[in-house]
Amino acid sequence: MIRTFSKSKLMALRQCPKRLWLEVHRPDLREDSAATQASFQVGFQVGDIAQRIYDPEGLGVAIDLQNEGFNRAFERSAELLHSAQPIFEAGFSSAGALAFADVMLPEQKDGKQVWRMVEVKSSTSVKDYHRDDVAVQAFVAQSAGVLLDAIALAHIDSSWVYPGNEDYRGLLKENDLTAEALSRTDEVKGWITQAQSIVAESSEPVIGTGDHCGTPFECGFYDYCSRDEPKPEHPVCWLPRFSSTKAKELAIQGVYDLKDVSDALLNDKQQRVKDYTLANEVFFDAAGAATDLAAHDLPAYFLDFETIQFAVPIWKGTRPYQQITFQFSLHTLAVSGQLEQTAFLDLSGNNPSEPFAHALVGACGKQGPVYVYNAGFEKARIRELAERYPHLSESLLALNERVVDLLPIARERYYHPSQQGSWSIKKVLPAIIPELRYDALDGVQDGGMAMDAFLEGIHPNTCAERKAQIEQQLLDYCKLDTHAMVRLWQVFAGRTDLKL
Ligand code: SF4
């Protein structure tokens, strides 16, 4: 049977022939992660904005595949190519493949109507797989008889600043790929032929899992494909910063477990992870940790941020994918040993950045260490706020000077086998202070959930009762982050005299 392959099926082939076979014959086995589904949502959102950018007067027509079905969508697209209006999601089927073009723009050339095709992506640069995608798109459209004059890929320009008032001109940056896309016709034909022969097989290709399972997309068949692969008790991937090349070489030799990894391949940190994991013992250099912290007195502050990013900015003065701070928790440990907590959370739906910066400067006092966990993140956000709000710049940058990072201390001085080679606070906290548990929190239990809760909290359709519930869950979550830091500090500093 000769099949017609969609562009996404051909992209699946480009990632892995087995993926294509499974997509066609066993789609029931596919399980898309939450991250993959979220990326689809971002793609739809950027597609909607692209229609407004390329058709500001609303003269164009959008093909609705869901409602019209494939055959009607192809027929209508062919009819619309005789008109002179922008077409969105125009569908073409020819030469064994089918594809839908994000944007088709009519143009006049030498007295004839020709078309400019634009593929819109939510990424911030052109990737290699976009080039394959555009090559397929161009091939199918040309085979279907479309007079293509130009082919471009538009991606998000992360340096663009949203001026407000729904004015999204400038959000997308175009790259002309006409010559390249049109020169790859034979390659695309080869992919279609290859796809035909792969799906004609009665069983799936024999291909093991590897780097290709996550590149360029996380493959939804991973659980299925890895089901019979060795499940070591202490996987090699627990070794921190272990080179993937070395890991692959070990896998070829059948080495999957830490116990079989030669010490000669390991640096000191990796050796420690191996030794203490296999011995099921805790490493704690208490004297070293106390020395690291000895230079910092009380009062001390313990700070954590929550942020949100939008591919399509919603607040004036912000950039696509900019990390925007909407919440912080701050624990303050006074010289007396008294512990207090304050918080900031803005669910008004307005840009929270400036009120956040004001509240932060006001809450952190003038002196004393400001402890964070993984300082690069918080320091970068503070720097950005300082750039955006010059009147607060001096105070914000002074704050950055006081930041002390607990992560490197944890990394150097502590390791519990349950961390499985990770020093994320979500791994370190249950190891050191088991009674503080993120999974005991109501609703929001990690950063991703905090972002989702924030989005729901600022949505105009969210009722007051639900909003209040979200507010409490976010406050509790962020408070646990900073309380966790206080307790880590206490253990590392050896201050068991304090009741925290
Ligand atoms: S999980 Fe990996 S091996 Fe399996 S189909 Fe996907 S990419 Fe191919």
Describe what you observe in this structure:
By secondary structure, this protein is of the alpha/beta class. A hairpin with a 5-residue loop joins strand 10 and strand 11 (339-345). It has helices at 7-15, 17-25, 34-54, 65-80, 128-143, 178-182, 185-200, 222-225, 244-252, 268-279, 286-294, 353-363, 375-388, 390-401, 407-413, 425-432, 447-458, 464-493, and strands spanning 5-6, 61-62, 87-94, 97-109, 112-120, 148-156, 172-176, 283-284, 300-308, 324-333, 339-345, 370-372, 403-405, 414-415. It is 44% helix and 17% strand. Helix 11 (286-294) runs antiparallel to helix 15 (407-413), helix 12 packs across helix 14 and helix 13 packs antiparallel against helix 14 (390-401). The protein is globular, with a radius of gyration of 27 Å. It contains 18 helices and 14 strands. It has three domains: 5-200, Alpha-Beta Complex (Lambda Exonuclease, Chain A); 230-281, no CATH class; 287-493, Ribonuclease H-like superfamily/Ribonuclease H (Nucleotidyltransferase, domain 5, 2-Layer Sandwich). Bound molecules: iron/sulfur cluster (SF4).
